[in-house]
Amino acid sequence: MKRILITGAAGQIGTELTRELRRKYGVDNVIASSRHRPEDDAKHSWTPFEVLDVTDRDAIRAAIEDYNIDTVFHLAAMLSAVGEQDPQAAWDVNINGLHHVLEASRRGGVEKVFWPSSIAAFGPTTPRNNTPQDTITQPTTMYGVTKVTGELLCDYYVHRYGLDVRGVRYPGVISSDTLPGGGTTDYAVEIFYEAIRQGHYTCFVREDTVLPMIYMPDCILAATRLMEADLSRLQHHNGFNVSAMSFSAGELAAEIRKYIPEFACRFEPDQRQAIADSWPRSLDDSAARAEWDWQPAFGLAGMTVDMLEKLRTREQLGTL
Questions:
Q1: Smallest Cα–Cα separation from 76: which of 96, 47, 97, 60?
Q2: H helices within 116-186, ranges in order?
Q3: Does the reported pTM lie above 0.90?
Q4: Do domains 4-171+214-241 and 173-213+245-317 have the same CATH topology?
Q5: 143 catalytic, yes or no?
Q6: Strand, helix or coil at 36?
Q7: Percent of the chain at pLDDT above 70?
Q8: Does residue 41 surpass a pLDDT of 70?
Q9: Helix, strand, coil share (%) of the chain residues, nearest 5
Q10: CA 117 to CA 279: how far, in whole Å?
Q11: In the chain, what are the domain boundaries?
Q12: DSSP track, 190-227
C-alpha cells in the first residue's frame, strides 16, 4: 500500500482509520474523502482531502487516477436504521457506490480494495449463536440486503477480474472518538457518553438483547491486518466474521455501574429492536483467526475501562 484513498473518511470508522493509516504510511499518501469536508480539530487535520460522492461514477474514477491510488478503503455507506428510512437511497449509496469503486479500481490499476460487510448480512433464519462463517444470509433490512449483495459483488470482482478485494463482517463498533451514524448498535456507544454527561440513559433495545461487538482499536486492527495479510493464505476474501465480545445491553449497563455506581439505565425498545432480534448473538470468527491471524485485544471489561477513561479526558478538555 503506497497511495491510499479512503471513502467515508469522516464516519465513525473512517475518522480513526484515516489517522492510523497516515501514521503507518505517511500523511501525504492517504487521501481522505467524504461528501462534505469536516472541520479540522486539535487531533485531526484532514488534508489531503477530496470532496467525493460515491454515487458519482466519474468522480470516483477521477480521484483514483488523479492521486495514482493503489489501495482503496471503501467505507462510505448508509447504516441500518437510517437505511430503513430511505431504502432507495441506501441501495444507491451502498451498492451503486460500491460498484463504482470496484469498476474504477479494476480500470485504474488499483491493487487492493477493502470493503466492510456487517452482521446485518445475516437474518432471522441464520443460526444466532456462534454464527458460522459460511451460513444462511437472508436479511430483513435494506442495509442487510446491500451487505449480502455487496459480498457477492466483491467476490465476483475477485473471480472474474482478479481484483484483490478483501473485507470483514463487522459487529457493532464502539468508539470513544466519533459518534456512530444511525446504526442499530448505536446504543452501545451512546450509553457511555450519557453515563458521563447525564448519569442516566434510555436504551432503545431490551435489557436482554445480546449482540456481538468490537472496540474501535480492534476494528482498525482487523482492517489493517487483513489488508496486509499474505494473499496466498486467504481461502475467503471478503465477509470474514470478526468479533471480540458479546454481551447484553443489561450487562453493559452493569459493567458501567462498576465505575459510575449512580448510573441509571432504562430500557424502552423502539423499532430498532426488531432489527437487533434478527442479528446474531455471537460469531464464529475462526476463519479470520486461521487465515490472517485475527486476535482482538479488548473484551467487555477492558473496553469499558478504556472508554470511560478516554471520555473523561475528553470531558475535562471540553471536547465531549
A1: 97
A2: 142-161
A3: yes
A4: no
A5: yes
A6: coil
A7: 99
A8: no
A9: 45, 15, 40
A10: 13
A11: 4-171+214-241, 173-213+245-317
A12: HHHHHHHHTSEEEESS-TT-EEEEEEHHHHHHHHHHHH
Do 204 and 211 form a contact (C-beta atoms < 8 A)?
no
Tell me the fold of 4-171+214-241.
Answer: Rossmann fold (3.40.50)
Q: Which of 25, 67, 143, 157 is catalytic?
A: 143
What's the CATH code, domain 173-213+245-317?
Answer: 3.90.25.10
pLDDT computed for residue 221 by the predictor: 98
Beta-carbon count within 10 A of 299 CB: 15
Please choose, from the candidates 231, 100, 106, 232, the residue with its C-alpha nearest in 3D space to the C-alpha of residue 157: 106
**Residue 242: is its pLDDT beyond 80?**
yes
Query: Taken in order 54, 60, 66, 72, is the CA torsion positive or negative?
Result: positive
Collapsed DSSP state (helix, strand, coil) of residue 168: strand
pLDDT over 70 (residue 305): yes
Q: Mind listing the pLDDT tens digit for each residue in 66-101?
A: 999 999 999 999 988 888 999 999 999 999 999 999
267-287: average pLDDT = 96
